[in-house]
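Our preliminary data section would be incomplete without showing what the modeling component actually yields. Below, a chain of 158 amino acids is followed by its predicted structure, encoded as tokens that our downstream tools consume directly.
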Amino acid sequence: MAEIPTSEADIGLIQRIIPHRYPFLLIDKVREIVPHKSGVGIKNVTFNEPHFQGHFPNQPVMPGVTIVEAMAQTAAVVVGVSLDLADRGMRTYFMAIDKVKFRRMVVPGDVLELHVTVKRGGGKIWKFEGRGIVDGEVACEAEFTAMMDQPACEAADG
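Predicted structure:
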């Protein structure tokens, strides 16, 4: 198994850490990873994404819930890098989403930066704050809590 870099996760490493795949893998890379502290996910928003067919015809807008989910995926990668969980079948489950505010639409052509910071973590339960930023403007902000878990057979092996 290759050593996990601590500064950036490309799509290959992201897929080794979290189980999400098309059409629900919502981040393209995570950069500026500081283990146990923070990271910045990158989502290149394209018109080809399936949610744009119905949200909304003639005015495509990235759904707010997918922005928050992209923050959570970024956070899970930060945890995966922090705890060396590549190839270990980690699962991430939302426990709470708080203080969510949407400030600007995210549309095809935008590069959405997902800035996540660990507020509390280390075991199975982690709390984060996140901001989605496009062109220097905050599009979304939220606090969220998640449980990081591995399937029983995987956890027993590790």
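Residues 91-107+117-126+135-158 form one domain. The longest strand covers residues 137-149. Preliminary results of this kind motivate Aim 1 of the renewal.
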